[in-house]
Design a protein that fits this description.
This protein is of the alpha+beta class and about 475 residues long. It folds into 4 domains: about 200 residues, no CATH class; about 60 residues, no CATH class; about 60 residues; about 80 residues, Arc Repressor Mutant, subunit A (Orthogonal Bundle), CATH 1.10.10.60. The chain has 23 helices and 11 strands. It has a 4-stranded mixed sheet. A hairpin with a 2-residue loop joins strand 8 and strand 9. The longest helix is centred in the last third of the chain and has 33 residues. The chain is elongated.
Length: about 475
């Protein structure tokens, strides 16, 4: 039996230096977030000045240092062997400065995901139920709908599980009980039904409104009041009361999140056609013009041992900031150029010709890690003749056509919209017939996939379209 005692063990773990952390944070920032970070740095570091400020000061204060930092200056600032520091505790150096990060200081808009997860996390569910509820929350689209079937989600979470679908059904019931009412619905009818069931039971017109949304929503969409009142055996006054209640509901339960806080977007690159090819160019408005004043920098370096003085530290930080900004701009342009080079068809013909991409596709093209591409595509936009487009617009799942060509779900949705717009309104196409027309165009997809994509782009089912066409002919 060993006597109790203390033991020391040294373990090695990689910890990113403060400079590398700064570079990663800047890479993930949007153009507006970078502008906030620059404003914070300007107020905290007297050695930094914006280009505009320097133009007003004049030449008498000395020539400014350009934002590009030479290799010799970089070696003077930091020992390359210390780029990765080793720690026995796992704590990153410089973590005490994280509270001063301008992105953390800026108030973040409340997203639907955050709102739902905050309710899930305090629900008191078991660990497994918590995990499943979080999975379903992550699977919701921007409108708050669950577009994927529980079978598909179960296959992704635990392939081959026989009981997971039933567990997901229970978890979905919980998610559908969260605020806002209607979230987690799989159709408009279910969304409206969830909102109605959240109303007080003695609300006038509630019972009739539930019957309408559950069984006759297509007739309501077609404004077929006579048929609804006849089938439900209600008076026009009762129907009007129920109809008013239904129209007070929100078909998109997540529409209020972020609606009152519009986000202004500054594109990081612009896309133009040059000699028959689409090319990405950096947007100067998204690149801050920041410099170090040489007069102040020379004054700091005249002191012996300047690198260990407070002003020397600020000079080092200023140079690393400029280098991080430069590397951020270069990486964003490389990623954008790789995306544009791959999506020539999209810029010519639109979503129907979009090529689906994965992060690893662009990472291999640019020669960086997938996590770097993920950071670059987060919150970054390109200004194109087709509008302002987020980098993530081009990334997603893939479908394969009969000839092996990869097709984006957005392309399938565009084809479905074109097929429906060209149909005879008096004889609209069923999802099966749409599937067959897609096959004729070289896109082989399942009927349930067509149904999911049709719902996603807001096209009513065949019966609802038929009723709408009949109502318009009257």
């Amino acid at each position: 039996m060993h006597a109790p005692g203390l033991q020391l063990r040294a373990t090695q773990g990689a910890a990113l230096s403060q400079q590398m952390q700064q570079g990663l944070k800047m890479l993930q920032m949007s153009a507006l977030e970078l502008e906030q970070a620059i404003a914070q740095a300007l107020s905290a570091n007297p050695l930094l000045e914006s280009d505009d400020a320097l133009d007003e000061v004049g030449a008498e204060e000395g020539e400014p240092i350009e934002s590009r930092t030479s290799d010799e200056e970089a070696e003077e600032l930091v020992d390359p062997e210390r780029e990765l520091t080793w720690s026995t505790t796992g704590n990153n150096h410089g973590s005490e400065r994280s509270a001063d990060d301008p992105v953390l200081l800026a108030p973040a808009p409340r997203s639907l995901r955050d709102h739902l997860l905050s309710q899930v996390n305090v629900s008191g569910l078991s660990e497994r139920d918590l995990v499943l509820a979080r999975v379903l929350v992550e699977a919701l689209d921007e409108d708050g709908y669950l577009r994927d079937s529980l079978d598909e989600i179960a296959e992704l979470v635990e392939p081959g599980s026989r009981t997971l679908v039933r567990e997901l059904e229970v978890a979905l019931s919980f998610v559908q009980s969260l605020d806002p009412a209607g979230v987690g619905a799989r159709s408009v009818a279910e969304c409206l039904g969830l909102q109605l069931r959240a109303q007080p039971r003695d609300l006038p017109g509630l019972s009739l409104a539930l019957r309408i949304v559950e069984s006759h929503l297509d007739l309501l969409a077609a404004h077929d009041t006579v048929r609804i009142t006849r089938m439900l055996g209600c008076s026009e006054a009762d129907f009007a009361q129920a109809n008013q209640l239904i129209r007070s509901l929100a078909p998109r339960p997540a529409a209020t999140f972020g609606a009152d806080d519009p986000q202004h977007v500054v594109p990081d690159v612009t896309v133009r056609k040059v000699r028959g090819r689409w090319v990405a160019f950096p947007n100067s408005a998204a690149s801050p013009r920041l410099r170090i004043n040489r007069l102040y920098a020379d004054a700091v370096r005249r002191d012996r041992g300047w690198s260990s003085t407070p002003m020397g530290t600020q000079l080092t930080e200023a140079r690393w900031l400029l280098r991080s900004i430069e590397q951020r701009a270069e990486t964003i342009l490389k990623v954008a150029s790789a995306i544009v080079a791959t999506q020539q068809g999209f810029f010519e013909h639109g979503d129907v010709a979009i090529r689906p991409l994965h992060l690893r596709d662009i990472a291999a093209e640019v020669g960086v890690h997938e996590s770097t591409v993920s950071r670059v595509t987060s919150g970054k936009y390109m200004a194109t003749p087709r509008g302002l487009i987020e980098f993530k617009h081009f990334f997603g799942s893939r479908l394969v056509s009969e000839d092996g060509y990869r097709i984006s779900p957005r392309a399938i949705q565009t084809l479905i919209r074109d097929i429906v717009q060209a149909e005879d309104p008096s004889q609209p196409l069923s999802d099966i017939r749409i599937t067959r027309q897609l096959e004729q165009r070289g896109a082989s997809v399942a009927r349930r996939t067509v149904t999911k994509y049709r719902d996603a782009i807001g096209i009513p089912p065949v019966e609802a379209r038929r009723m709408i066409a009949m109502a318009q002919q009257r």
